[in-house]
Design a protein that fits this description.
The complex is a heterodimer of chains A (about 240) and B (about 625).
Chain A lengths: L1 E6 L4 E6 L7 E7 L4 E9 L11 E10 L4 E6 L2 E6 L2 E6 L4 E4 L3 E6 L3 E6 L4 E7 L11 E7 L21 E3 L12 E6 L2 E12 L8 E8 H4 L11 E2 L4
Parallel strand pairs in A: 2-17
Antiparallel strand pairs in A: 1-2, 3-4, 3-18, 4-5, 5-6, 6-7, 7-8, 9-10, 10-11, 11-12, 12-13, 14-15, 15-16, 16-17
Chain B lengths: L6 E13 L2 E12 L5 E10 L3 E9 L2 E4 L1 E4 H7 L1 H5 L7 E4 L3 E10 L3 E12 L7 E7 L7 E9 L4 E8 L10 E6 L2 E6 L3 H4 L12 E9 L7 E5 L2 E6 L9 E8 L7 H15 L6 E7 L11 E2 L2 H11 L10 H17 L8 E8 L10 H12 L4 E7 L5 H9 L5 E4 L5 H12 L2 E9 L5 E2 L5 E6 L4 E7 L6 E9 L4 E9 L17 H19 L3 H17 L7 E8 L6 E7 L44 E4 L2
Parallel strand pairs in B: 1-11, 18-19, 18-21, 21-22, 22-23
Antiparallel strand pairs in B: 1-2, 2-9, 3-8, 4-5, 4-9, 6-30, 7-8, 10-15, 11-14, 12-15, 13-14, 16-17, 17-27, 19-20, 24-26, 24-28, 25-27, 28-29, 30-31
Classes of the chains: A mainly beta (about 240), B alpha+beta (about 625).
């Protein structure tokens, strides 16, 4: 999966990829003060040509908003919602709107799920539908957090650690491996990293083609930009 | 193309991949400037005029300059200052009858290499029972690594495969390697440096001409072959073993003064052969015209041996002189066909057509072109097809093209050359055997959208109808299909079910056949049809149609008549970087008839030179609301 960290104060963005074995569950957001947890489980391609790189994507998300008694399990097949004991099962194949006690939920057929928590965060999950007979790829999901400033200062996780901003500086550009994408040195979190100026795609408006987001790309699974190591974010279950 | 011996062409590679008739060709060439001074290197390649360029790049000393497809008007505006200074030359020019030439030059520093890469795509059209891939190669000097590779994948199975080249000698023949396995074909040609030379110590190269691959696919099912891939479908329709329909054809022949001598003689010769080839079930008429219109007979004649003999004798008496009265001549032909249908003198199940041959603009009678088009359209009323042959360079091709398209036909340019007789006969052969008329394709309305044309006036023997569209639901892997038409004895009606087949990947690196090729085929076909439709629509409709075609051209990176390819290139110390523009030519712009290249009087080609921003850091567009996300691509 590719991560994009929007930094509006700097009018810039950071991005990195995370790849591990398909099936791994990562903690994306953990906010002990609001009781919010977002975990995501990866899936791989249906088939991988021998010797080629294994790409992974998120196939399931488990979301808990403890303060509001909300629990969501979103997969490429279905959406299970429970709020204070009430449960509902929704499918991507039908548009639906649920107005809950503290949460509004809107499914746009085969496209997106928007979850708005009262006086709190809003997030969007995008369904990337892939032709069923595609020999390599399968459906996968994207997760977009809006209003991330509403989390507490203690928020952490692969995405959450950036919700309160990140300080960095970038040196002059110099030619990199790809002539179209120059490199630079980034000073961040006490590290000096070689980063590359590139693009990643935001699929909220155009689920098929996405919109290019210029960003500083951090190599090696985000090493140096994420706190600790990737393995620190691996959890045993979705909830 | 090199300017001195001190430039060495190191490699030329032409890589063509075809999946279900959609061809994707990449031409790559690397040259090294061995001199200790900078030199100009030219990259000149020819591509089929039916193709759309999709990409061009130059890599110089590790730096890549990539062409960008932009809206033509915007590109023009961007560089209009340069254009206005009179720096006009063409990056794309007509070249012969089937090709257009893309050429760009760049100044290369001493001991520096340059790699040019041009990519283009086209939907191969079936004609005379085969598809043809034409690759023109003229490397000008022996090349260290020369390679033509073609991979063809046709899910219907490949019926035959042939590859030959105009420059092939007995020595080179064994180097053309062909492998054919049911659905896949691989063709390669890779002569060594020595094998490219005419003789061991000779200069020059044998490799100069056309490398042509021809093949056809197996045809079994009536419904045709429908492929569903990734939310798009394409339907290829050319059923086997259909009896031909009788045709009712009126030849409208320009005998005005400008046809005098060679053109008139070639027309007579072609007509004699064409008349000989008529079937006895066919009906025909002849309408020679200059200022006056003088039909051979007032009504259609059955193509009996006696009538054909009499017609041939008449044809030989046609002499050139006078003005050009196209309006009256075509209307006379329409009247003859209409009367025959009314009087039931032609079979119920038959195809009616007019073939107009002219070499100039209307100069007598109604001369206002839109009025002629309107008159003809109203008279024909969708009841017959009109094919227009523009003979030579003095015709208003655009006028004939629109006239034909408005009446379910097509226009063709006949080049003034010694083989004009063969060209005329060739065109006639293409349309002489209608198999079906009024062919309608029906797909469930709630299942598909963005359909390309689904009604065709005729299906001709040896050709193929292609319809493509999008599925409303990506998950949908089957849907019903219905094709109806008029056949010789009965109404042709077939119903079937289109269903996606699990297929093994053929080009795994590019995921070519499962990636977006069906979608690109759909986009290519849609753009072609929108451009055709645009030509015959009202001003109001034209705006919408143009917008749609432009949007698709930009979205799929096709260089069409609405877009331009803007290429940035390094120049010299005074002008650090320049931009040049490549446009797609329209048929009306292809006035050149010589294979040797364009003439200086050609219009429609532009060369612009202006500074461009080559900064590598993308400009920022990020929203002020922070968005943190994780997704895949």
């Amino acid at each position: 999966p590719h991560f994009i960290i929007g930094l509006p104060d700097k009018n810039d963005a950071l991005c990195f990829n995370i790849d591990d074995k398909p099936g791994t569950i990562f903690n994306l957001v953990k906010d002990p003060l609001t009781g919010t947890v977002v975990n995501g489980q990866t899936i791989g391609d249906k088939k991988v040509e021998p010797g080629s790189k294994i790409n992974t994507y998120f196939g399931r998300f488990g979301i808990v908003l403890q303060k509001f008694g909300i629990r969501l399990m979103v997969s490429t097949q279905e959406i299970l919602v429970s709020e204070r004991g009430k449960q509902a099962k929704l499918f991507w194949s039908e548009s639906a709107t649920i107005k809950g006690h503290n949460m509004d939920l809107q499914v746009t057929e085969d496209r997106s799920l928007s979850v708005t928590v009262k006086n709190s965060v809003k997030f969007v999950i995008i369904l990337h539908k892939v032709w069923k007979m595609h020999p390599y790829h399968q459906d996968y999901l994207g997760f977009y957090t809006l209003d991330s400033h509403l989390f507490s200062p203690k928020v952490h996780g692969l995405l959450g650690q950036f919700y309160n901003g990140v300080q960095f500086e970038v040196s002059e550009l110099f030619p990199g491996e790809n002539e179209e994408k120059p490199d630079a040195i980034m000073f961040v979190k006490g590290h000096q990293l070689v980063v590359t100026r590139g693009w990643q795609r935001d699929f909220r408006k155009d689920v098929k083609n996405g919109e290019n987001v210029p960003c500083w790309f951090i190599h090696n699974n985000g090493t140096g930009i994420i706190d600790g190591e990737l393995s620190d974010y691996i959890v045993s279950g979705l909830f | 193309s090199v300017s001195s011996d001190e430039i060495e062409v190191q490699s030329v590679k032409i890589d063509c991949k075809v999946a279900s008739r959609f061809a994707h060709t990449v031409m790559t060439s690397t040259a090294l400037n061995k001199a200790n001074f900078s030199q100009e290197v030219f990259f000149e390649v020819e591509l089929p005029k039916t193709a759309f360029m999709t990409n061009f790049s130059m890599e110089i000393d590790g730096k890549i300059y990539v062409g960008e497809v932009k809206e033509k008007e915007k590109a023009k505006k961007q560089y209009e200052q340069a254009v206005s200074t009179g720096q006009t030359a063409g990056l794309v020019k007509a070249s012969g009858r089937k090709m257009e030439k893309f050429s760009v030059s760049v100044n290369i520093a001493a001991n520096t290499s340059v790699t040019f890469t041009l990519t283009y795509e086209e939907l191969l059209q079936r004609g005379f029972g085969k598809y043809e891939i034409m690759i023109r190669v003229k490397p000008k000097q022996p090349v260290q690594q020369f390679e033509i590779v073609a991979d063809i994948y046709e899910p219907q199975g490949i019926a035959f495969l042939d590859a030959h080249a105009t420059f092939i000698t007995n020595e080179l023949l064994p180097l053309v390697k062909k492998t054919l396995t049911d659905k896949m074909a691989h063709i390669s040609f890779s002569p060594t440096l020595e094998q490219q030379r005419p003789c061991p110590q000779c200069g020059g190269t044998l490799i100069d001409g056309d490398f042509v691959i021809k093949y056809d696919v197996n045809r079994v099912q009536d419904i045709g072959d429908i492929q569903i891939v990734n939310g798009y479908f394409v339907h290829f329709f050319a059923p086997a073993d259909l009896p031909r329909l009788p045709k009712n054809v009126v030849f409208v022949i320009d005998r005005s003064g400008s046809m005098y001598n060679i053109k008139m003689d070639q027309t007579r010769k072609a007509l004699v052969t064409i008349l000989t080839d008529l079937n006895e079930e066919d009906h025909f008429g002849l309408v020679p015209f200059d200022s006056t219109v003088s039909p051979w007979r007032p009504s259609l004649s059955k193509a009996t041996p006696e009538n054909v003999k009499a017609a041939k004798e008449f044809v030989l008496t046609i002499e050139a002189g006078g003005w050009t009265n196209i309006n009256e001549a075509v209307l006379a032909a329409v009247n003859i066909l209409t009367a025959a249908e009314k009087n039931n003198t032609v079979p119920d199940r038959s195809a009616s057509m007019i073939i107009l041959l002219t070499d100039g603009d209307p100069s007598f009678g109604v001369r206002h072109l839109p009025t002629i088009q309107s008159n003809v359209r109203n008279a024909i009323g969708g009841n017959m097809s009109l094919f227009c042959l523009g003979f030579g360079n003095d015709v208003d091709y655009n006028f004939l093209d629109v006239l034909a398209k408005q009446n379910d036909g097509l226009a063709r340019r006949i080049y003034e050359a010694s083989d004009a007789v063969l060209q005329l006969q060739g065109f006639y052969d293409e349309v002489s055997s209608p198999l079906l008329s009024e062919v309608h394709f029906k797909y469930p309305e709630n299942t598909v959208n963005s359909l390309t044309s689904s009604h065709f006036k005729q299906l001709f023997n040896g050709s193929e109808i292609v319809v493509a569209g999008r599925l409303n639901d990506l998950e949908m892997n089957d849907f019903p299909v219905e094709v109806s038409a008029q056949g010789l004895e009965n109404d042709f009606m077939v119903k079937g079910q289109a269903s996606a087949q699990e297929k093994s990947p053929i080009f795994p690196d590019q995921e070519y056949i499962f990636g977006d090729f069906t979608e690109r085929l759909w986009a290519y076909l849609t753009i072609q049809q929108l451009l055709d439709k645009r030509d015959k629509s009202t001003a109001e409709e034209k705006v919408n149609i143009t917008a749609k075609a432009l949007d698709l051209s930009l979205r799929y990176n096709f260089v069409t008549p609405l877009t331009s390819l803007v290429v940035t290139k390094p120049q010299n110390d005074e002008k650090p970087e320049d931009a040049v523009i490549a446009d797609k030519l329209t048929e009306a712009q292809r006035t050149d008839t010589q294979d040797s290249g364009p003439t200086s009087s050609q219009t429609g080609y532009r060369y612009a030179s202006a500074p461009v921003n080559t900064g590598h850091i993308p400009s920022h567009r990020y929203a002020s609301t922070p968005v943190h996300s994780v997704d895949g691509d």
